[in-house]
Model the fold of this input.
Amino acid sequence: MAKTFGAESTADEVLEGVNLSGKRVLVTGVSAGLGVETARSIVAHGGTVVGTARDLEKARRALAAAGNPAVELVETDLASLASVRKAASELLKRGKHFDVIIANAGVMACPQGKTQDGFETQFGTNHLGHFVFVNRLVPLLKSGSRVVTLSSAGHQISDVDIADPNFERTPYQAFTAYGRSKTANILYAVALDDRLKGRGVRATSIHPGGIQTELARHMTPELLEQMRARIAKAESSQGRAFRFKTVPQGSATSVWSGFVGAADAVGGHYCEDCHVCAVNDDVNSRVGVRSYALNLAHANDLWKKSEEMVGERFAF
Done:
């Protein structure tokens, strides 16, 4: 009988009895929080991890604090396409396949700014950086591989705006920009899964849950309170009290969707609390995934726009 996991499950509990020996996994953002714990849990169960970080010294310190899991580090700044392309080229030259790619890194609700390539910071880092990085690494994905992109319930704040991704005509709001980027993460997984499932590679997106990590480092006390109030209101409407997850609990859905959940179940879908979420367009609810985030035609439109923005086409 298959084990059932939920909101309070940890990554180690999800991987209990799972032998990851021979599995090679790429995890972006292993300098703090979920990335470190995700990498640690995979190594603890026999897997080999390649981790990316913008600041390698910070990553080494964070990994040391987590018990020094054997993680190979690659310098990658997702806010710089030059850095992303250099890192991807290095991995391609090595020619070693990946069984799972977990696109974990990201920024949240930061002040208005631009990446090195002139993109709005959150859309450019959370979506476009991963879009180029992962797409360039597709040749290293063999049949049976998976791609897991970390999204958020924050996708419910806003759909993407394909006509104005850089807020050139729209007043900037930190959470709106975050919501757009997290919707983009889901749409990217939908489009990638559609392109790769014929060769046996599946892509999925997840919400790790509400966790207090460095992701919120850019947020003012006022923004943090707005976020807590919005989540608490939505949770109370469902008869639940909101509680932050621990980092081990927050990492659980990443490893569940990467190694434990059935490929055909998670492929092209959005997961939370170690299960596949149903579509829910109730604007007063935090449960499930908005239909606009799973629309394949919409995902393909975003793919085309993303290719135009980064100046690179990806045909698989």
Remarks:
- The chain has a mean pLDDT of 93.
- The first helix runs from residue 11 to 14.
- The beta strands are 24-28, 48-53, 71-75, 98-103, 141-150, 202-207, 270-272, 275-276.
